[in-house]
Structure formats: C-alpha cells, structure tokens
Amino acid sequence: MSEPIAVRATPELTFRYAAGQYGSRFLEGLREGRILASRCPRCPRTLVPPRIACTHCSGRMTEIAEVSPCGTLLAWTLVAFPFLDPFTGVQRPIPYCYGMVKFDGTDNTFQYFLSEKDPTKLRVGQRVKAAFREERRGELADLLHFAPAGD
Amino acid sequence: MTGVSILGAAQTRHVGRRDDANYMELAFEVVEELLARTGWTHDRVGTVIGASSDFWDGRTISEIAIQDAAGAAGKSASKVSMDGAFALVYAAARIASGAFQTCLVVAHGKASEGNPRKIANAGFDPLYQRPLGIDDHAALGLQARAFLEGRKLSPSALAESAAQSREAAARNPNAHRRETRHVLEADPLHDDEIAPDSDGACAVLLGASTFGGVELAGFGCATDEHALGARDLGQAGVLPKAAQEAYRRAGLGPREIDVAEIHDASSAQTLLWREGLGVACPVNPSGGAMGAQPGFATGLVRVLEAYERIVRGEARTAIAHGMTGFVGQAHCVWILRRRS
Amino acid sequence: MDVAVEGRIRIPYRWPAGRAGGMFLSLLASEGRFVGSRCAPCRRVAVPPTSRCCRCHVECAETVPVGPEGTIVTWTSSPAGLFALIRLDGADSALLHRIVEASEVRTGMRVAAVFEKERKGSILDVAGFRPTGGVR
Amino acid sequence: MNVAIIGSGQTNHRSRRLDVNAPELIDEAVQAALADARLAPDGIDAIVVGNMEHFEGIHLSDLWAGEGTGAVGKPQIKVATGGTTGSSLAQAAYYLVASGFYRTVLAVGWERLSDSEGETTTGIVTAFDPIYERPTLAGAVSGLAILACQYQAKHGTKPEEAALVVVQARENAAKNPHAHLKQAVAAADVVKSPLLSSPIRYLDMCPTSDGACAVVFTSDPGDRRCAWVRGVSSRHNHTYLGDVAEGAADFIHTLQLASADAYRQAGIRDPRNDIDVVEMYEPCTWAALDWAEAMGLCGPGEAAGLWASGTARIDGGLPINPSGGVLCANPIGATGLIRVAEASMQVRGTAGACQVADVETAVATGFGGSFWNEVMIVGARKS
Questions:
Q1: pTM to 2 decimal places
Q2: Which of C34, C60, C76 is the mutation pick for testing B, counting most B CBs within 10 A?
Q3: How far apart are CA D30 and CA D221, in angstroms?
Q4: D58: in domain
C-alpha cells in the first residue's frame, strides 16, 4: 500500500533576534577581545553573558565588568549524532565538543565549544582559556573555543 | 465571584520595533515597574504564569526567556500558550484553589522580530487553508465583508469605527504610534482598519481578595471551530456564550457594565465583539487592540486598561476581553468590579 | 548600539491528512469531486469532512457528495491573494479557496472548481474557483 | 485537596501514525478517557490541551485540535511548557477543578514527532537562547549529556550500571499495550549502541513517538473508582543553561525542591517507604539515576543499586516506571500526562500486566524547559 496522503511543507521562518542592551555590550566586548559580565552588587553576583535580571534576586544587574578569559571546566559533551541545524536547515557538522566553563571571578558557567575533541582527555576542574579569532565582528563566533590553559 | 483580585499592573509603551530590548528585558521592564508601583517584592509572590507564543517569539518553550525576569526560578510556574486573558484564568485558579496567595502574570509579544503574515499563515488549518497562502489580514477581510453584508452596512462603518479607535489611542500614551494609510489592505478593510503588529509586554499581579485590590468578579471562555468557513464570520460566534458565563459568575448583566476593553484585530471586530458582549457602555477608551496589538499580551493589556479605569474611579465595573485565533476562534471575557 | 542577530527556523514537516482528510483529498485527486461528512444528530454537512462532528462530538459515519459548484459567502482581496469562502452545493460549511479567472467578485456569485490537470492529493489540486455567470 | 482522577486514555504510541491526522490521534485518547471515566462529552466542563508547536510546525494547534478534544462550545486553555507540557496540563486541570471554577476538566496532551520526520532535536535547539546557546546545543540529548557527565564525575558510575535503567524499562514496556519500544535489550547492547552525545548512547535515550493521552479530573467522582490528588508541585529554573548547570552559584535542583514540597502536602515523610510506585519522567538512563536520588528514593550515588538489586522492578520494593516510562514511549506533549495517567491507573488498580500490588500512593514527575521539574502525587485515600 502506498503511504497515506499527507501535506508536506518546509516553512522557513526568519527572525531578527534582538541581543538587548546587555547582550549588545557583550558582543561589542567580544569584538575587542574581552569577556564582559553583568554584576549585581547586592547579592553579589557576576554573570556571563551579561543580562538584566540577577539569578539570585531577580533584580536589575547594574554594572558591566570585564572578567578574565581564563576559567575552569565543569562539564562537557562530545556531540556525535546528526541533526538538522534550525539556523541552516541542513545537518550541523559533527562531531564537536562543548563544555560548561566557569570564568574566574564569575558565579555561573558559560556554554561554548572546546578545542579538545577527545572527551577522555577532559576532566572536571581543568583550566581553560577563551581563544578569539583574529578578525572580530562583534558576534559570538568571535569566540573560537576554550583551549586548555597551562596554569 | 472568584475570590481573586488584581493588586497591580504595568505595561510597556507599545511600539512597532523594540530593537533595544530582548524578551528578558521587555518582561523585566513591566515586572520591575509593577513591583515598584505596588511595593510587592519577588519573595512575596507565590507563583508565576507566563503567556507567550513560541511561533511569534521564534522560540520553543518561549517562557524560558523570561524566567529570571519574572522571578520564576525556584518557584512553581507555568505558561499558557494563548492570549494573556486566558493565562489570567489559570492564574486566578491557582489562587482560588488555596495553594497560593499571589500570582504574577507576565505576557509578552514582539511582532518585529519575525514575519507576522508568514507566522499567521502557520495558524490556519494546515491541510486545507494554510497551503492556499491565507494570512490573518486576509481572514480579517473575509470577516469584515461578512459582517458588513450581513447587516447591510456600508464600508464607511469600518472607517468610522477605526477613526474612533484612532482618536482614543491618540489620548493613550502607551498606544502604538504609527503611520497609517487609508488604502485597501484586505478588501473591504483598509490599512488603518486593521490592528497594528506591536512590540510590548504587560504584567498583572493577582492576589487573594483578602489583600484588597480590584475584584475579578467573573470570567467566561468558549472555543469555536478552527476552520474559516465553519461558521458565519459575520456573527460573534461563541463570544456571547463566553460573556454569559462571565455575567453569571459575576452576578451582573451587560447593562451594569461601565466600560469595556475588547481585543479588536480589525475595526469590524470592534463593532462585532461589542455586539457579542451585549454592552451599551463606552468601548475601548484606550484605543483597544486597534491602538496596539503586542501578540499574546494584547488581551492582558485590555485587563490592565479596565483595571486602571476602576482604580482611577472612572468606572465601577468593567469588561476586558481577549481572544486567540485571528477571527475569534477562542474568547475569554473578564468582569472587574470595584470593591464597595 | 542595539545588536540584532539574524536567525531562522527551518524544519521539514509532513502532516498526514488522516482518515477523513485522506478520503477527501484522494477523491479530489482521482475523481475530481468533493465530498463532505454528515453528522447524524445535527444533519450538518461539513466540507472538508471531519471524522467527528465538531459541534456534537459524535462520529460522522455518512459521506455525501457536494459541489462541484457553489456560492461565494464572503471574499477578500489582499496582498496574500484573492480568497473566498465558498458554500459548495449540498454543504453547510464553506470551503476556503482562491478565486481565479474573474473580472469581478461579489458575494452570492456562483462559482465552479477549476481542477489542475495533474493532481496529487492536495487542496492545491484545485487551482481555484471561477465564476460561472450565475448569482444566487 | 478534593480533586480526583476518574479516568484516562492513551493511544498506542508509535514512531509513526500516518493513518490519522492530529485531531484523529487525539480523539483516540479522548474517547478512551471518557469511556474509562463513564462520561459523555457533555460531562466535561472545560479542557486543557497542550503540545509544542514547533515539533509539528503548526501554530494555534489547540484550535485545530478542537475536533479531537471536544473543545467547541467549551472553555479550552492551552498550556505548553516543553517536556513538562503533559505534567503542566495535569497541574492546570487540577487547579481549575480545585478552584471550584469547573467541576470536571479534561487534560489532553499530544505530539506527532513523526511530523518533523524525527528532527525533534532541531525543534528543541530553538528552546534556548538564539545568540548564546543554539550554536552549541544539540537539543535535550546534549543538555542531558552535561548532567550525565557531572553525575558520572561525581559518583564514578559506569555506563553499564546506568544501562540497567533501560534494560528494566524495556522489560516493563513489553507488558504495556501503549508502550512504543518493547524489544528487550541487554546492558551490553546499550554500551555498544551508537554514541549520541557523550556519555549518552542511542539506547540510553528516550525515543520520539506519535501519541496522545487524556486524563479526567473532577471534584465530583460519585461512585467511580478514583485516584485522589494528594500533592502538586512545580519548580522552575533560570533562563540560561549556564545558570542551570551544577556549579553555578544559583543552581537549583528543581526535582528535589518540587518533590519535597509535594511530599509535605501528601504527608510523605519517608519517600522510600511511603511511596508504593513511581512514574518518573526519565528522558535518559543517567537522568533517572540523578533524579531517584533527588526524590529521596535512595542516598547520593546509590541510585544504580535500585535497578541492580531489582528494587525498581514491578515486583520489587519500590517499583519505578512499571509502564516502561519515557525510555519506551515519548510523544513529548503527552509524556508527562502519561506519567500521571499511569500513576492513577496504579492507584485505581487498572494497570493490567504492569499493575503493582497494593498501591496506596503513586508519584508522577515531569521534566522539561530549562531543567525544571513537576511532581504530582495520587493516592487511594482522599486525605
């Protein structure tokens, strides 16, 4: 029997996602090769990426401060299965490795690519450093990955 | 009687494009203002209900964006994927159940980030109507013609109604200011007879009636068939049914309502929904949705406008109406009453 | 400066027409005719047919032929196209479709379906409805 | 609390249901629930419905679903919270009845993941921040892999120990007519199955299913066999995944908080002994381990022992997922509601071959969003 009747469609919805006041500052910072965080002096909290609402008190984070590009790896995964990337509509290149990194002096973690692709070489507490690309445009991709750091 | 009251409310100014704010910042704006106005703090808010659309936000589980802004992390929270007026039903139920004393309701919508007509197309019957390329404006045109011809009205009725909404919106500092042109958009509707695509947010704090505030006297909801063509679009459909439920719960009749705020996506709907509610009072002194239509926040803004009129002493009772579905496939009617 | 990031959601979908819809679309494709479903309690004929009456919530067991001509109930012309709700002869609900080959459109106009030559089981197997010259 | 579950219905969950459209799929579950509750459609006063719109690519799916849910002419509210959608529907239905607003409310959850031809991950990626998180995230799989990585690092649990969760789930699913995956697997199969996102392998992860579930909540059960709602709780989480991961200063274990709150309402002091059966939303084997501990079913690092010792079996000391759980059927918008349905069936004694003996108290959980959790407890007695 042939496949039952169905309607097929590939709607392509395009969006212009606003980075917002805090996100715009963060992306500008990346262009300059700097990692910016937002701070809540009351709690106190320093969070990357910078955002308006404090994760502790839900109040307004009032300061933007530069933090160290060095940090500690807390978790990671090697992504090895194929799936369509919603941004492109085609399969995302695999495998790739990303992790959760706590920048020194901050109170949360930041999720980004790792240069190391072999998960057996990674460990909790490992020191890593954010690497930037040479020509930066003020976008997340200015950040290449986290690479192992010697310290 | 619901045993629940509105303790405070806040809205953004509604505009065509808020490039300066992402969803978290948009929600934060209204929550911060609401707390500042009422003197409430996050730690005294029991639970949070969001209202937003994953399609309009371009984001699955769209409420994730506003969790920290609404103080929802660590609390019991949920999201209604319909107009904020429906979210208010769930929020009020959480309080009336006795489980919570207060509930923060946050609704947001940003039409500017996506393509509104294309997103609207995705909201029609996927098998038979969406492939034809129909969108919300075309559906509003079909409805407006059915309305005019069913009542033997001339198209000038639409223009007159739109002019009234425009005048009212001009007096409302939060309404969406835009250039309109009197050119046909979806015959018989002109560009200036269709509600705008707006960016904005709204927050309402509900509490048990022991906290005072403006009483939520009653509500009613009803759902209609989805397909265009299933009913006479020129009639109010299930809106009278939703309204009857609200009147019954409130113990009030339509003649006892002082002011109505209705969700009108077109100037035909301003007239049609007024008829469906059966009210004879002033309608949409804020300009209504014709003055600003920030997605799923639109109906909650109607509740806010009704609430503020009662707080200012301009009305003793008010109706606020929200809908989901471009031609009113689901309606929610709220009746607000000043405490005696 | 306000930064915005271009993004996209692009996912391929397949929506099965189901029992009632499969019958409707296959008859449209193979025989070039329309059918509706009749609800036994309320006698209402829905087009396209539904497996269950939306109003009475009982199963619709009866299939009835409708159309291929009908009457325009309401219409609009917008940037998205020229659309009408058409009550096919024998139906109670109205079908949404495009109006084609028309110099003018009015409510009450009689229209007939214009079928595509190659049909594959889609509402687009009907190119649109054209006026027949009659008025009701 | 004076709200009871008096009936439920499910489809037979499958990887593909091409023979029915969404309203027809929903209809199967709704009719089964009405029959189970001995109710005619007019016995339902309001409906709560939910699915996730981007999985089918259909906006306002609640309106389209009306033919199946029976919403026309009635109040219907759509609740959609990601993986928790089903548990959120149960909670919404509970509150709508407990408030006195409606007497009898039907909760309906559904999903047709075959509509996106298995590309569910693509939809889930869009749940997270478009600028910071979508470039790296690979949906729920990689999100849970982060949790699994941390669990493994903390407790040194081996993949073959975690695998026992799905080995047992498949055994149970073989007895459940509604389950999707029923084929027996061995731990050795699991650790050899293709790597998805380390340490999660193919057989560690839940499937994508087409299916629907409906549950009837009422304040007026009459003489019907019912399961009383004894505890309802939910704890939400932060916006960014970097705040949600363990190690962030404001990390919240939402399941721990939600269970503790629900236990308090239900008078459960010793969860290991006071609970008779658990229907846990375990999207992957590793999560089941972390969450059994969060629910206080065992001590930290001891969860693998619940499965290794047979405690979690249908005839064990604390049965976990006698239905086969999420690992054996996952129509996302229905999944959390299926947990509630299965828990209520255990209490009502209608769980057939999956029935646990003498169930007084059953716990259902839901997981979703940015790692938030919900808990509903049902019991044979009203209080």
A1: 0.98
A2: C76
A3: 18
A4: yes
